[in-house]
Design goal:
Length: 534
């Protein structure tokens, strides 16, 4: 790679070149019709200060450490300065929020800078989150606070290194301005440090981008946007601008979405706000808000306090919500199809279910160390395991890592069989005799199942450790890094970033970061529960 300075980044802003613009130049909140985006400038800030940047992301953009650590970098990626080729804009989209159509939403606090073409010829869109109000800001301020910016920055990088499709993050930069937030929605607003994340992805197009034009019956722009998406974001499909091409595209979106959700279930990631405006057509995890990681395994858990009563976006519900969201996308593109395409559209939606079922089985087999998923035995093994895991507080990540060390020995008594798993339990007193008998029985069945597996214990352990992470961004770890950063010390943000680059490795010097959530974190805000305030 040839290192370059900021001014030699090459931009190719196809989205704005090929799609209709809002003609109104004033940056005022409004409904925007017949246009995919509005030109908008970021709001200048007083004192940008770099908190952290991701070297991996900088590298594929061909930016060196020296460039990233320069004052100019912070000025550019906080939104104060434009470099050659950047043409900032906010895009228009709509969405279903918590199951209800919400009308126009749009980039209310995201400002796109343009698409960089890197030296490998790849297209990478750059987007600032928290750089000021846009026509789509509705009644909000267009800003973001440090805590939510660090959470997005760290989690999107962690997800990437776990092998999960996601948007990336280049940098997080303090603005020097204060932002007022009522974190608990209890009438006690406070000033918090403001920050801007630069997100990076091949494209930020969401289901809601199509929904808004369908809802407004603006079929002209709907078709323009879909044809653009086929050309730009799915060139490998070679899909033509016709009903057949649209169906091929939609079934690809279904396939990718299924794969993404299987990954979330594998590692215990709960998105928290799976509204259709937070669903990427590329099947990327996008919009890290009040997300969380399962600590104790619980299919009913959601980190989002705003969703606490209905739990629409709980862990166990993510697969069916993704399907519901895809059905909304199907409705949005239906006006571009013909009546006779309906069965094919239905079949494309079924691609989600088929892909999900198949990939879920493969994923569960790999988590348990089976070469293949054997439906006859493994469906029951999995559902019994989930029931057992949920019955007492069991740390999901630690449980699977410890299970990899299990050596089947059916003659052992329950307590001895369970012993290697003890590190996973939050409240050991919950393991009464009935529970021990239940788990002991499951472990014997598991041991028997492994006999048919033709893998050595060592080979199985390696295979399991390649899919069951040792390190995830535990909710309390993110909060500790945020507390330190708020006090001016960014070292823990950078330490976590580094550890999470190798989530499946042992990293003995960092083993404490793989430990269970400490007791103090059980009820602390930010550690177990989050509001949408960000
Ligand atoms: P979310 O559910 O956080 O993804 O956001 C839903 C919609 O609200 C999107 O259109 C966001 O751009 C917008 N939004 C969220 N927070 C803010 C904010 N602080 N200022 C302006 N718009 C926001
Ligand atoms: Mg969003």
């Amino acid at each position: 790679m040839t290192a370059i300075d900021l001014n030699s980044l090459i931009f190719d802003n196809r989205f704005i070149r090929e799609l209709p613009a809002d003609p109104e130049p004033i940056n005022a909140r409004r409904q925007v019709f017949n246009a995919c985006y509005s030109f908008v400038q970021a709001t200048p800030v007083s004192n940008p200060r770099l908190v952290a940047y991701a070297k991996d992301v900088a590298q594929f953009l061909n930016l060196t450490d020296t460039v990233c650590e320069s004052p100019e970098f912070s000025q550019v990626f906080v939104g104060n300065r434009l470099i050659n080729g950047m043409m900032p804009y906010a895009s228009c989209y709509g969405g279903h929020q918590f199951g209800h159509w919400a009308g126009q939403l749009g980039d209310g606090r995201a400002i796109n800078l343009g698409d960089v073409i890197n030296q490998r010829g790849e297209r990478w869109a750059l987007q600032l989150k928290g750089a000021g109000a846009t026509p789509y800001s509705r009644n909000a301020d267009g800003l973001a606070v440090l805590r939510s910016s660090i959470r997005e920055f760290l989690c999107s990088e962690a997800m990437f290194h776990l092998g999960i499709p996601t948007t990336r993050a280049l940098s997080v930069i303090l603005t020097g301005e204060e932002v007022i937030r009522d974190m608990f929605y209890d009438g006690n607003p406070e000033a918090e440090p403001g920050a801007v994340v630069c997100r990076v992805a091949p494209s930020f197009t969401r289901f809601g981008h199509f929904q808004i034009f369908a809802a407004r019956q603006d079929l002209k722009v709907l078709k323009q946007l879909l044809d653009y998406t086929l050309r730009t974001d799915f060139p490998e499909l070679a899909a033509e601008a016709s009903p057949a091409g649209y169906l091929a595209w939609f079934s690809e979106v279904c396939r990718r979405t299924a794969q993404m959700i299987v990954h979330w279930q594998r590692v215990g990631f709960v998105h928290g706000v799976m509204n259709t405006d937070n669903m990427s057509i590329l099947g990327l995890t996008i919009d890290y808000g009040p997300y969380g990681w399962l600590e104790n395994f619980d299919l009913n858990w959601t980190p989002n306090t705003t969703d606490a009563s209905e739990r629409r976006y709980r862990y166990g519900n993510q697969p069916s919500i993704a399907f519901w969201n895809l059905a909304q996308l199907a409705n949005a593109i239906f006006p571009l199809l013909r009546e006779q395409d309906l069965p094919a559209l239905q079949a494309a939606l079924n691609v989600y279910k088929e892909t999900f079922e198949h990939e879920w089985q493969t994923m569960m087999a790999s988590k348990l160390g089976f070469k293949t998923f054997e439906p006859n035995t493994d469906h029951a093994l999995c559902s019994d395991l989930f029931e057992i895991l949920q019955r007492v507080e069991t740390d999901m990540s630690i449980f699977y890592r410890q299970l990899a060390t299990f050596n089947p020995n059916p003659s052992q008594n329950d307590a001895d069989l369970i012993h290697p798993l003890m590190a996973a339990y939050y409240v050991p007193e919950q393991l009464d005799l009935a529970y021990q008998a239940r788990l002991g029985d499951w472990l014997r069945r598991y041991g028997k199942r492994l006999e048919a597996n033709e893998w050595s214990d060592e080979a199985r352990r390696c295979a399991m450790n390649a899919v069951n992470p040792n390190y995830v961004l535990r909710n309390y770890l993110a909060q500790l890094a945020i507390d330190e950063a708020t006090a001016g010390d960014f070292s823990m943000v950078n330490t976590l970033l580094e550890i999470l680059r190798h989530p499946y490795a042992e990293q003995p010097e960092y083993q404490r970061f793989a430990a269970k959530r400490p007791d103090w974190a059980r009820q602390r805000a930010g550690c177990s529960m989050l509001s949408c305030s960000s």
